[in-house]
Amino acid sequence: MFLKKFIGDKAFYKTALTVALPIMLQNLITNLVSMLDNIMVGSLGTEQMSGVSIVNQILFIFTLAVFGGLSGIGIFTAQYYGKKDEDGVRYTLRLKAILAVLIFAVGAAILVLFQEPLINLFLHDGEYEGDLTLTMDYAKEYLFVMLFGLLPFAFTQVFADTMRQTGDTLTPMVVGFLAVGTNCLFNFLLIFPHPLVGFPGWGVTGAAVATVFSRFVECVILILFVYTHKRRFPYIRGAFRSLYIPGEALGQMARKGLPILFNEILWSGGMTAMSIAYSLHGLDVVAGYSISSTISNLFAMAFLTMGSAIGIIAGKHLGAGDGDKAYDAARKLTAFSFAISVVVGLIMFAVGGEITRFYNTSEASIGLARYFIRVSACALPLQAISNASYFTLRSGGKTVITSLFDSGSVWLIAVPTAYLLYYVGHLSIYWVYPIVMSLEIIKDVLGLTLVHKKVWIRTLV
After folding, report:
1. Domain for residue 359, yes or no?
2. What is the pLDDT of residue 197?
3. What is the CA radius of gyration of the chain?
4. Three-class secondary structure of residue 370 per DSSP
5. Quick one: average pLDDT of 30-57?
6. Does the pLDDT value for residue 460 go beyond 70?
7. Is residue 458 situated within a structural domain?
8. Residue at 419 is within a domain
9. What phi and psi values does residue 89 have, to the nearest 5 degrees?
């Protein structure tokens, strides 16, 4: 009886994997291509890789702001869909589009006005040396082009997010495959010189152009697909004839969605602050952390995807008014996510370091990357539990609690610890990194406690 609480039947896992596998496959391909990008840019030199890595850390805040804003509204999309309320889904789509434009406008303004001060936050003389001026030049070069891809990225997420929350996870996956394939091809053509086909070698600029072009491709194809399949996506009919959203629905979505938006901004800002703390140890640490993060993300996407599945499945049950089913599904999916993370963590520990052989950068960066990968592999099960807890709490609209749980733990515990260990403890990065990663245990205990108390079980629509 105890095991049955945590292990579902075949039908349960079939439903869960139907939701999770398309997202997982899309993330797998995206992360594989990201790793190939990383390898190709890394072959240009440590400064080029570090410059690109710094910009991606800064853009990570924009990316998470988009995800956070849309996810907060997406709670209502999933519940409206569970209630079979097409007008409700339509209102959420409108609000997502409006929010995407606002986030783009604010984000682009900040990146244009403060690009140099933001990049400078990551450039420090430390234990490991590198050319900081050259790194700054490459970072500015890369950021300039990447700015053009922010808006299509935001609109892609608006439509893909809505499609997933209304039961179609396959189409965004297929379109995502086309986009990453485009990105990979043009990376190869534009980063390195190819005299026979007439393409010049644009280095980090080529990498940025390839990414931006792939984002336009993904955005256009996805939007065209939705508009040419109106029977399949009935909520698109008249979706943008006006921007009207009923005041009551708007108020509800703002109250529940804004805390998630602010949480994602704060959390991503906290993770960026962590990267800055690691960069205090030198430029090779920036490159090594970039390599390890890219490889770690490839393995971590298995349990990260399960978090999205929990949000969608639990949200649908809550929208239908069945809190018991939502709790049962969340509990079993959390256990499943933990089991997956243990298996994936063992594989990552065994083979993750070998992937660094494909990188052509300094020996110090490679050595650090391998160490970071092994530590991250050990931490995967801890991260799987906190990730599942976060999405469970969020599915019921407990957005203030999830914000404190998620971003609060980063800013109040992890970030101060990283800086204190450097400035006060004077510890090497080889001590700082595992100590910070082990702090995930605190989130696990808190998250599981809140989920077990069922404070999140609530129908919002």
Report:
1. yes
2. 64
3. 22
4. helix
5. 80
6. no
7. no
8. yes
9. -60, -40
User: Mean per-residue pLDDT for 21-35?
Assistant: 73
Instruction: Classify 282 as helix, strand or coil.
Output: strand
Whole-number Å distance between alpha carbons of 433 and 372: 7
Number of domains in the chain: 1
Distance CA 397, CA 199 (A): 50
- Looking at residue 329, its pLDDT comes to 86
Other CB atoms within 10 A of residue 428 CB: 12
The neighbour count for residue 86, using CB atoms within 10 Å, is 16
Cα–Cα dist 373/290, whole Å: 11
Decide if 181 is inside a domain: yes
pLDDT at res. 196: 63
Q: Which two tokens mark 310?
A: 């929990």
Q: From CA 452, how far away is CA 328, in angstroms rounded?
A: 11
Question: Residue 44: what residue type?
Answer: L
What does residue 194 show for φ and ψ, rounded to 5 degrees?
-135, 80
Range of the domain at 18: 3-452
CA torsion, ordered 261, 264, 265, 271, to nearest 10 deg: 180
Distance CA 196, CA 242 (A): 51
Q: What are phi and psi of 169, to 5 degrees?
A: -95, -10
Helix (H) or strand (E) holding 269: helix 247-279
Which H/E stretch holds residue 244? none
pLDDT 10s digits, 92-148 = 999 999 999 999 999 999 999 999 999 999 887 655 556 788 999 999 999 999 999
Give the pLDDT of residue 127. Answer: 53
The predicted structure's pLDDT at residue 237: 92
Question: Which of 213, 376, 228, 231 minimizes the C-alpha distance to 292?
Answer: 376
Question: Is a pLDDT exceeding 60 seen at residue 66?
Answer: yes
Largest CA distance in the chain: 67
